[in-house]
Amino acid sequence: MPRLPGSRSGGALHGISTHADLRGPRDLSAAQRKHHHNARHPDGGLLGQVAQGGDPASLMRALATLTLLVGGMLVLASCLRLGFVANFISEPVLIGFKAGIGLVIVVDQVPKLLGIHFQKGPFVHNLLAILGSLPETSMATLCVGAVMIAILVGIERFRPRAPAPLIAVALGIAGMGLLGLHTLGVKSVGQIPRGLPSFSWPDFSLVATLWPGALGIAVMSFTETIAAGRAFARSEEPTIGSNQELLATGLANAGGALLGPCPPAAARHKRR
Which of 55, 83, 96, 190 has its Cβ near the most Cβ atoms within 10 Å? Predict the structure, then answer.
């Protein structure tokens, strides 16, 4: 399966990546391996304080505890009807958020579209790295990306009810296998782990250490979710229920805590 241009957003707090991963401690993602490196580093952040030596099992328990705390705080905020805080998000903030997230997504996806690789860093670093790596562009990867974008835009334009992303992914997989695109330098996503994720049980002895970081993540999670929902909402769509967002995001975190994900800084929003 080729790497298709996509979109994601997230943040980090105290050295914790916010991209979720459902794999257990025996099959760690690149983001979680980064946690291990951070935990060994003197400035490794919050997880480095609770997982001595970067032990994978200890890190997974800490992540489960942190995610559960974030979920619990969001559910509690929903029960206390604290969603009114979202009313203080002004229109200029929403405009800035929309512009900012658009730029971040573009800079994150352009290297995949061009088939170039470099060490990721802050926004300006990534932008300069893209400009410096333009001579290394893989024309085959660029052509595949352009075709996929054309398919997505064309389907949404002429067949708006069709599942455009699903069709594009299916065509990409078929093209990768039938046309042998890997021989032209088009990279695939690699091996995808099989089976169900392993359970990760929280360690409640870490609550006293992790709750400040969990509180910060919970606030950012809710703020980004509401900001994204309002920024991209259409005028004909129902008003977003702030307390409902708190509850949905909190339950998603609490339920996923046992499956080993990292606490997200933002989640897909649901309508009332």
Answer: 83
Neighbours of 261 (CB within 10 A): 23
Closest Cα partner for 45 from 228, 216, 235, 250?
A: 216
Place of tokens 């032990």: 55
Range of the domain at 116: 12-138+186-259
Contacts 24+ apart (CB under 8 A), 73-76: 73/214, 73/215, 73/218, 73/250, 74/218, 74/221, 74/222, 74/246, 74/247, 74/249, 74/250, 74/253, 75/246, 75/247, 75/250, 75/251, 75/254, 76/250
Place of tokens 């002004």: 90
pLDDT in tens, 33-65: 444 444 333 334 566 666 666 677 777 888 888
User: Which stretches does DSSP call E strand in the chain?
Assistant: 12-13, 16-17
Say if 17 falls within a structural domain: yes
Write out pLDDT tens, residues 158-200: 998 999 999 999 998 898 888 888 888 888 877 777 777 777 7
What's the rounded Cα separation, in Å, for the pair 54 and 254?
Answer: 24
Q: What is the pLDDT of residue 267?
A: 38
d(C-alpha 138, C-alpha 165), whole Å: 23
The answer to the question of residue 159 being in a domain is no
- Judged by DSSP in three states, 16 sits in strand
When divided into structural domains, the chain yields a total of 1
Q: Is there a domain that residue 130 lies in?
A: yes
Average pLDDT over the chain, rounded to an integer: 76
- Tell me what percent of the residues of the chain surpass a pLDDT of 70: 75
pLDDT of residue 164: 92
Query: For the chain, what percent of residues have pLDDT higher than 90?
Result: 22
The answer to whether residue 156 sits within a structural domain is: no
